[in-house]
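> @MW can you paste both from yesterday?
MW: sure, first one:
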Amino acid sequence: MGETVATSLWGNRDYRVFLVIQTLSALGDSFSFVAIPLLVLHSTGSVVQMGLVTGLTGVASIVTGLFAGVIADRFDRRRLLMLADVARCLLYALIPLVWVFATPMWVIYTVVPLTGGFAMLFQVTYVTVVPAIVEPGQIIRANAHLYGSYAVATVGGPTLAGLVAAAFGPVAAIGIDAATFAVSAAGLLLVRLRPTPRPAEKEGEEQEHSPEHGGVRGEFLAGFRFLWAHPVLRPLTVLLSLFIFLTHGMTDVIIFRIKEDLGHGDGTVGYVLSAGTIGTFVASFLVARLRKGLGFGASWIGSVTLAGVAVGCLGLTGSVPVIGALSATMLLATGVAGICSMSLRQEVTPGHLLGRVTAAFWTTHYSLGPLGAAAVTAAAAGFGVAKVCLAVGAGVVCVALSGTLTGIVRAEPPEASSRTATASSTPESATESA
C-alpha cells in the first residue's frame, strides 16, 4: 500500500482535494491581482499610489513573516490555512460593501495590507503542509502540479477580471475573490495531514536545547540560523532579496505601460496578464525534467537569467502581443526558479522547523520588496517605462550570474535532496548533507 501511494500522487485523496481547492483559490486571487491596481488607478490616476499600495502590502507581509513561521510550527496547520482564508474573505468583502456608499481610499490602504499579512501566514503554512500530504520523493512533482493548477486558474482569471472590471468595475472582481476564499476554507475541512514529528519524539536528550524554549524571538532565529548555516539556502536568500527588490513592482509597471503609455483599456490589461500566466503553466511541465537533467544550480541560474532578459526586452517594444509574450517568458522563468527553490527548501529542512525556515526565508528576501516597488514605479513615472525595464532586466541578469560564484551552482542533485529530507531529523544533519 505504501509503495502505491509513493508512486502515484493521484491515488492520494487528500492531495487531490487540496489541489482542487487551491486551484479555485488561485482563480479568485487572479481577480484581485488585476482588480486592486485597477481600482487604485481608477480612483487616483497615479502609478505612484499603485506602487504605494503594493509596497504597504509588502511591509505587512514582512511584519507577519516575523512570527508566521512560529505560529505554523506551533499550531494546527490546517486550521491556520482556514483562518487565513476566512480572514481574507471578510476583508475583501468589506471593499465592495463600503464602495456601495462611498469610495474612501483609506479602506484600500487598510484592507489590502491586512490581506497581505494573512496571505503571508497562508503561504508559510501552505509550504509546510505539502510534505505532510505527499511522500518525500513526490515533493517537486506535487509543487509542479500545484503551480500548474495555479497557472490554469490564472490564465483565464485575469481575462475574466479585466472583462468584469470593464463591465461592472474593479470592485465586482474583488467581491468574486472574497467568495473563492470562503469556498477554499470550507474545502480544507476535507483535507487530512500527517502529524509532524517533534524533535523530542526522536531525540529526547536535545529537548532542553530546543528553540521552542527560547520564546518567539528564539523560535524565529532558529529558522534564520538554519538558513545561514546552509551552503545553498544562504546565498539563495541573499540573491532572491535582490531579485525581489528589482521585480516586485513590475506588474504595476506593465499595467501602467499598457494603459497610460499605449492607451489601451482594462480588458487589454486582462488579456496581457492572462497571456503572461501561460508561462507559469509551461513552467510546471518543464521544471521536474529540467531539475533532473541539469540539477538545481543550473536550473535556477539559467531561469533567472532568462527572466532578466525578458524584463529588459519589455522596454524595447510598444506591441501589446509582444508584451504578452515577454510576460509569459518572464513568468516561465520565475516559475521554474520558484518551484526549484521551494522544493529544495522542503527537501532539506526538517518538518518541525519548516514553518520557521520558510518564514525567515520569505521575510528576508521580501524585505526589500516594498522599497523596490516604490522605487521602480516612481522611476517609471519619472524616467519612463522603457528605461526602467532595461535597467531592471540588466540588474536581474547580474543577480543570476552572481549565483555562479556561490554554493548554488554546486547544489546536490534532487535525488540526494530527497534522501536527505527523509533521513534528516535535526537542522545540523540537513545542513551538513547539503
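MW: second:
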Amino acid sequence: MMHRAADSGVIGVSVLYLAMLFAIVFYGDRRADAGRGLARRGTIYALSLRPT
C-alpha cells in the first residue's frame, strides 16, 4: 500500500517539473516574440551552451 503513495508522489513531482519547464519555455518565447529575448544576455547564453 505504501508503494502506491510513493508512486503517486513521484508522478506528481514529475508532472510539476514538466509544467515548470513548459512555463519557462512559454515565457522565453513570449519575450523573444516581443524582441526582448533572453539569449542576448551573456549569462543565459553561456548557460545554454552544451559542451561538445
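> thanks! The chain has two helices and no strands.
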